[in-house]
Design brief:
The complex is a heterotrimer of chains A (about 190), B (about 180) and C (about 120).
Chain A lengths: L2 H17 L4 H17 L6 H16 L3 E8 L2 E4 H24 L8 H19 L8 H14 L21 H19 L1
Antiparallel strand pairs in A: 1-2
Helix pairs in contact in A: 1-4, 1-7, 2-4, 2-7, 3-4
Chain B lengths: L5 H22 L14 H9 L2 H19 L5 H24 L5 H25 L7 H25 L1 H11 L1
Helix pairs in contact in B: 1-2, 1-3, 3-4, 4-5, 5-6
Chain C lengths: L2 H4 L2 H22 L7 E6 L2 E6 L4 E6 L4 E7 L2 E6 L6 H4 L9 E4 L4 E5 L6 H6 L1
Antiparallel strand pairs in C: 1-2, 1-7, 3-4, 4-5, 6-7
Classes of the chains: A mainly alpha (about 190), B mainly alpha (about 180), C alpha+beta (about 120).
């Protein structure tokens, strides 16, 4: 198994532990776990957009009151159930984003016919992105030009045998393994207490 | 990789263009939070004329998967939303194209696709993320979607009429 | 290429369906009953608020035990209460703003919130 595949499997195996988490607090601990794993394995994390998204989701959920009133101002009541709901749903969204950002690495090869078709898609995608910039003409002519240019590439140019980087004792593999173990531990604890 | 058919290459290429367009739209700042031209649907609209039904469905599927992989949001809720929206709207567009034939233009197909996709996303947002208040933004969300669909549909119609590439492909398919 | 030359009959039909869906959704969200109703429950100095949109059964602790409150189909009633006369249960279903019911022996009071403090109204305007 190569490295990207190991990340993918570890991520996929951790997902149920996150999705079926029963406790909102432990769900957020899992979120922090996924975010740190994403950062450690070299991808960016930006705080502000996530905070805004979380605040937005919590606010939207507060609009549907549910449970004991814990705070009341300007005729608006903050209810416990709605707050917990929003908190938990926001965690679900943020956590899934970072679990997937963590799991899907570059050079991921998917086996089988679908896999080879996907690599063909990525082959064309690379050509589109790397190809010369089309500068003349209006937007539509640019698209047309781009399609022509990419179409010209002959089929022989495509080789599916790019070498994926293989497992090499790398200490970085500890991270996905830890993510898997810790997320299931965090899933189990609230069930026991 | 010796026997990849011409059609498979066309599917892969159009799927790659879907990814490219969604990347462009992701990079361009939006005038309104939900304002999205949906340029990534252009390859699907073109494919209606160039590919068989099965390959069109495959293209829709690849578009969903490719976008998930590029944005790194595979298995996330965002991915689930866009995947459900794209699959439903793609199928709806294909069905309407087949059923109405010459009585419908790409504008109508675009409108139908946008409506289906946006409704699916609203319903999912209501049940999984925002709760009941998701519907409060429903009407403006749908209105913006309708306007962008009109623009994209008009653009697609013009593209199909004027594109040299499209004329070439169509000629090869029919001849 | 003129706009009216491209538009085909089914296009107009789909456009009309689009407009209809937007109108229907707008009416159901903003119009009609105004804000969606919530039920306010008071007992022992604490308050609870629940939306009437989701069916549920709540057990509220009063002076003598738990009063059972049921929300169903946009209405709410006291299903059971640990009181001798069960007057509160006989008060039946509440659905309009300012409707109320109470179980005095158990000290549980419920009312449907009125339009006056409508936070949803403020947003939709």
């Amino acid at each position: 198994m190569d490295k990207p595949k190991f990340f993918l499997w570890a991520g996929m195996a951790s997902a149920p532990a996150f999705l079926f988490q029963s406790d909102p607090l432990f769900r957020w601990i899992q979120v922090l776990l996924f975010i740190s794993a994403t950062i450690i394995s070299g991808k960016k994390f930006r705080l502000l957009p996530n905070l805004l998204m979380t605040a937005g989701i919590i606010f939207a959920n507060l609009m549907t009151p549910n449970g004991k009133v814990i705070l009341s101002f300007w005729g608006f009541s903050v209810t416990q159930g709605a707050l917990v709901n929003g908190f938990s749903r926001a965690g679900l969204l943020v956590g899934m984003i970072y679990l997937s950002r963590f799991s899907v690495r570059k050079n991921l090869q998917i086996p089988g016919r679908l896999g080879s078709l996907l690599s063909l898609v990525f082959f064309y995608f690379d050509r589109i992105v790397e190809g010369e910039r089309v500068t003349r003409g209006n937007f539509m002519e640019k698209i047309d030009e781009k399609l022509m240019a990419v179409q010209k590439i002959s089929i022989e140019d495509f080789s599916s045998g790019e070498n994926p980087d293989h497992l090499s004792g790398g200490e970085k593999l500890i991270v996905p393994a830890l993510v898997f173990i810790l997320s299931w531990t965090l899933f189990t604890i609230p069930l026991l207490i | 990789m010796q026997s990849v058919s011409r059609e498979a290459h066309m599917v892969a290429m159009l799927a790659a263009f879907c990814m490219f367009f969604s990347m462009i739209e992701y990079l361009i700042p939006k005038p309104l939070p939900f304002m999205r031209l949906g340029l990534a649907n252009l390859p699907i609209l073109i494919a209606l004329f160039l590919l068989s039904d099965r390959k069109i469905l495959l293209l829709i599927f690849l578009k969903v998967l490719g976008q998930g992989l590029v944005n790194g949001t595979l298995f996330s809720y965002i991915f689930l939303f866009s995947a459900a929206g794209t699959l439903c709207s793609g199928t709806a567009m294909l069905l309407i194209f087949k059923a109405a034939g010459k009585r419908v233009s790409l504008i109508g197909i675009c409108l139908a696709g946008a409506l289906v996709s946006n409704m699916v996303q609203l319903v999912l947002a209501r049940f999984f993320i925002f709760g009941r208040s998701a519907f409060i933004i429903g009407p403006p969300f749908l209105i913006i979607g309708t306007v962008s669909a009109l623009i994209l549909g008009f653009f697609a119609e013009r593209f199909v009429e004027q594109s040299k590439w499209f004329a070439l492909q169509r000629g090869e398919r029919n001849g | 290429m003129k706009f009216h030359r491209i538009i085909k009959p089914v296009d107009s039909l789909i456009f009309l369906i689009n407009v209809a869906v937007i109108l229907l959704l707008s009416i159901s969200v903003y119009g009609g009953r105004g804000e969606p109703s919530n039920v306010l429950i008071e007992a022992g100095g604490e308050r609870w608020i629940f939306s009437l949109d989701e069916d549920r059964v709540e057990f509220i602790q009063g002076n003598h035990g738990e009063t059972v409150i049921e929300i169903k189909g946009g209405k709410v009633h006291i299903a059971d209460s640990p009181c001798p006369d069960k007057l509160c249960v006989q008060m039946g279903w509440l659905e309009k703003p300012n409707d109320w019911a109470a179980c005095l022996p158990n000290g549980v009071f419920l009312t449907i919130e009125g339009d006056s403090d409508g936070e949803i109204d403020a947003i939709s305007q």
